[in-house]
Amino acid sequence: MDLYEPSEVHQRITTLSSKSHNHQVSTPTLQKYLRIKARQFGIPVPKKAKENIALHVPCHLVLEPLYFGILPHTLIPTIFFMIPVIYIAIYHITPPILREFQALANKANAELAQKRKRKE
């Protein structure tokens, strides 16, 4: 897999076609070109079966824009959904559960203290 700037792609195309080395100054851009090479791994296909298989397989690769350089565009609705869910879980669901656990722990401590007093 190779990643190219638009000027590099233009330079490769012109060098391959005309063998001239024109170095152009290009403005920075967010557009990139990716060259992907596929190789066959695994069990080889017999020669007779290869004749019936198409040599070119179409591949559609969709790359989505990133926000802040790491956040995919399609993840934004999920984040907007998760923020209120996490807020409700932290401030409205977790405290009563923790109070119940604390009450159980206090009860267990009281029982253990009573057992210790009986032994003494």
Give the count of structural domains.
Answer: 1
Kindly estimate the percentage of residues that lie in beta strands according to DSSP. Answer: 5-15%
- The dominant shape is elongated
Strand order of the largest sheet: 1-2
Helix content: 40-55%
Mean pLDDT: 80
Question: How many separate helices?
Answer: 3
Radius of gyration: 32 Å
Query: What is the terminal-to-terminal distance?
Result: 76 Å
Using DSSP, what is the number of strands?
4
Largest sheet: 2 strands, antiparallel
Structural class of the secondary structure composition? mainly alpha
H/E topology pattern? EHEHEEH
Low-confidence stretches: none
What does this structure look like?
This protein is mainly alpha-helical and 120 residues long. The chain has one domain (2-119). It has 3 helices and 4 strands, in the order βαβαββα. The chain has helices at 6-18, 47-52, 76-119; strands spanning 2-4, 33-35, 66-67, 71-72. The strands form 2 sheets. Strands 1-2 form a two-stranded antiparallel sheet. The longest helix is centred in the last third of the chain and has 44 residues, at 76-119. It is elongated. The model has no long low-confidence stretch (mean pLDDT 80).
Please render the helix and strand layout as text.
Layout lengths: L1 E3 L1 H13 L14 E3 L11 H6 L13 E2 L3 E2 L3 H44 L1
Antiparallel strand pairs: 1-2, 3-4
Keywords: Membrane, Transmembrane, Transmembrane helix
Give the structure's gist in a few sentences.
Keywords: Membrane, Transmembrane, Transmembrane helix. The chain is mainly alpha-helical and about 120 residues long. Strand 3 (about 65) and strand 4 (about 70) form a beta hairpin.
